[in-house]
Predict the 3D structure of the following.
Amino acid sequence: MADFHQNGHIATLHNLRAKTAEEMSHELTTFAEDRKITLILPCLYSELELPAIEQIVDELSKVPYLHRIIIGLDRANAEQYRHAVKFFSRLPQNHVVIWNDSPRNLAIGERLQYHGLYPAEPGKGKNVWGCLGYMMACRDTSVMAIHDCDIATYKKDMLTRLVYPVANPRFPYQLSKGYYPRIGDGKINGRVTRLLVSPLLIALKKVVGDKDYIDFLRSFRYPLSGEFAMRTAMLPDLRIPSDWGLEIGVLSEAWRNLAPKSVCQVEISDAYDHKHQELSPEDAATGLNRMSTDICKAIFRKLAADGTVFTPNVFRTLKAVYYRTALDVLESYYNDAEMNGLTIDRHKEEQSIELFAENIMTAGHAFLDNPFETPFIPTWSRVHAADPTLMADMLTAVKDDYADLA
């Protein structure tokens, strides 16, 4: 249940059940008269075939304060794009489906390639980046929110609580990060946060010493949540990672650009469940196997940029400290689950820890072998400097894709 603990690093905004989401929604409608609010939904076409998106659209249809909804559609052909436009047409808000694989958007990509600015790796990071560029080209949004399209327990109140801290003009927050308990089907979920990120940050503090950046990340109850909202002033210079390190990368940018008092985390749900990734121990390019490596690399790169010196010996020590720490943390989660009538498969959890420990070394070797790797997608400020008409042409491309449907 709710608590009121503050960790002293960033503000934690709890749900103390003393104010209804309807009250906050009414306030947001007032705030939105002067501060337009846009929601970005990065979406795979395959997600339109799952039940979660039906509930998400039904819930969003009841939200009164949204100025625009931008749906970035990935991995869709022309027929699937047509279906997606029809699927989202029941949204009463101003909304747009960006067909990322359309010939016109691919031509935009070729222009970016000419300047050496095209995101090399497809995925959520690239999708979000493109949607941000479209939104900034519209020049009418003050607050932006993002969440995924696979949330099986979605309620419109989640968005209301996520957006409220950055939309309220009396609050100082430039970024809000959602958090929630990851439980479902009688189990505690969220393996990567529980068994990789949390013990890794503890281990890093022991191995490389006190670092403000580590304390900053440890302040977040769910650093890998895909739900966050931001005031748009910082977006033109936001450096988004192109791999699975997106969420850690956004927090790293908040650390680089914002004062801690400008960042908050907000409790947005009592229960949260979404599509679960497989561990995929046999394939380093998929599932939690790939995700864990990318997350480790994102953290190592940021620490190195902040002055931390990494060597093979450091990574070997880090792996050993992480492994022992993760097993201790697992014991805590096991007892917590039993006390709450939930289950944890200790064998599978320890298998995950063993894989994550190996991937700490994999990520470390990748960093040492290529320390100058630039995994970030170029900022929109740089894109605009290289091709001043490109953002406006993005708007035209989307408009013309819609015209072809007529």
About this structure: The longest helix spans residues 312-339. The radius of gyration is 21 Å. The first strand starts at residue 11 and ends at 13.
